[in-house]
Design brief:
single chain; about 375 residues; alpha/beta; Rossmann fold; 3 domains; 5-stranded parallel beta sheet; 4-stranded parallel beta sheet; 15 helices; disordered C terminus; binds iron/sulfur cluster
């Protein structure tokens, strides 16, 4: 017997089908969040959409877009002074032409995996040694980073530094739009929006006419968001709507924004496999430079290839290809033998596709 979730999903899908027929043309919807991509694959959502509605993943994996030069620079810095380097599990395994952090640890350097910057901070409290947190992440992760930095300053902790590779997400979408990537509508990430609010995304709709729906992470949230986007397209409306209003407010989390603003300033920054994106990187302000390990120890500028030959991560991050279009996917490149960064992180599109490729719509009925 059909349960309530399943019945609701079917009703939404029927409406999506009806509107897609009425629109009658190809529609490209981009999501820019690894968690949404997980939900889409877990719920088999791509497979149940009408043939003219296409879902593409964008640059929604912070670990995937972290420049290889920064990973290599962090290693060069750690070679010059005794320190404990901490980072997240996904980042630990990301392949670069100079090896991964995991390879670096195998060479005898002290690299440790932490679940959050808070764990790295606690390590500094318990140790006399210098602890340097290699700190990737979008707005959602930057907020706790700023929170810990404020503790470090208030408690005058002397043996804690970061290497910030934090990035902002709206400039990446703007960059793709300016590059000419066709995005008809955007499933906008709920957790980033919880920080920056509906307000943080509005300029993309106003300046580029792109419909957006801020979406939650249940398969039903995503299906409903797709329906809301298609309705806007059918009616010729270019708005931003908030499906995730149970969490996201118009102005976002002001306290978190103020903490981020206190410590970080925005500058142009490189994204792996995408290039330099204007005003997309978060760097420590002059008055907090001492918290940046790079202000103390320099690493030579390097130019390294972003990807191995044949890896199509660049196209995947631009929403121009899906992982199963990469000839290496699942054959040469797997989570245990990753060729590119998109196969490593749990938020990487290739890794998510690999995890769910044998599953289908049945998942929806059980909540994904
Ligand atoms: S499957 Fe592997 S090689 Fe292909 S695009 Fe993804 S990460 Fe790169």
């Amino acid at each position: 017997m059909m349960n309530k979730r399943s019945a609701l999903a079917r009703r939404i899908v029927e409406e999506i089908n009806e509107i897609a027929r009425a629109i009658g043309r190809e529609v490209r919807i981009m999501d820019i969040c690894g968690t949404h991509e997980d939900t889409i694959n877990r719920g088999g959502i791509r497979e149940i959409l009408p043939r003219n509605i296409h879902l593409f993943a964008g640059p929604g994996c912070p670990v995937c877009i972290t420049p290889v030069e920064d990973i290599a620079a962090m290693m060069k810095i750690a070679e010059q002074k005794d320190m404990i380097v901490t980072t997240f599990g996904d980042m630990y395994r990301i392949p670069t032409p100079r090896g991964s952090f995991s390879d670096f640890r195998a060479r005898g350097y002290d690299v440790r995996v932490v679940y959050s910057i808070y764990d790295a901070y606690r390590l500094a409290l318990k140790n006399d040694r210098l602890v340097v947190h290699f700190s990737p992440g979008f707005e959602t992760t930057t907020a706790p980073t700023a929170g810990i930095l404020s503790e470090v300053v208030e408690r005058k902790i002397e043996n804690f530094r970061i290497y910030s590779v934090h990035r902002l997400t709206p400039p990446a979408v703007e960059y793709l739009l300016k590059e000419g990537t066709r995005i008809d509508a955007l499933i906008t990430p709920g957790h980033v929006s919880a920080i920056i609010g509906v307000r943080g995304w509005r300029y993309l709709t106003e300046n580029y006419g792109i419909p957006q729906v801020i979406s939650g992470f249940d398969p039903l949230d995503v299906l409903l968001s797709i329906l809301m986007l298609l309705k806007m397209i059918q009616e010729g409306r270019k708005d931003i709507e908030n499906e995730y209003s149970r969490v996201v407010e118009e102005d976002g989390n002001i306290e978190a924004q103020e903490k981020i603003e206190r410590f970080f300033t925005v500058r142009d920054a490189k994204w792996r496999a995408l290039g330099i994106i204007p005003k997309s990187g978060l760097y420590l302000r002059d008055e907090y430079q001492w918290l940046d390990i790079r202000s103390e120890i320099d690493a030579p500028a390097m130019e390294l290839p972003d990807l191995e030959a044949g890896c199509r991560c660049g196209e995947i991050l631009r929403g121009l290809a899906l992982p199963d279009e990469c000839p290496l996917f699942g054959r040469v490149c797997t989570p245990s033998t990753p060729v590119g960064p998109c196969m490593v992180s749990s938020e990487g599109t290739c890794s998510v596709f690999y995890k769910y490729r044998k599953r289908g719509m049945g998942a929806m009925e059980n909540g994904g």
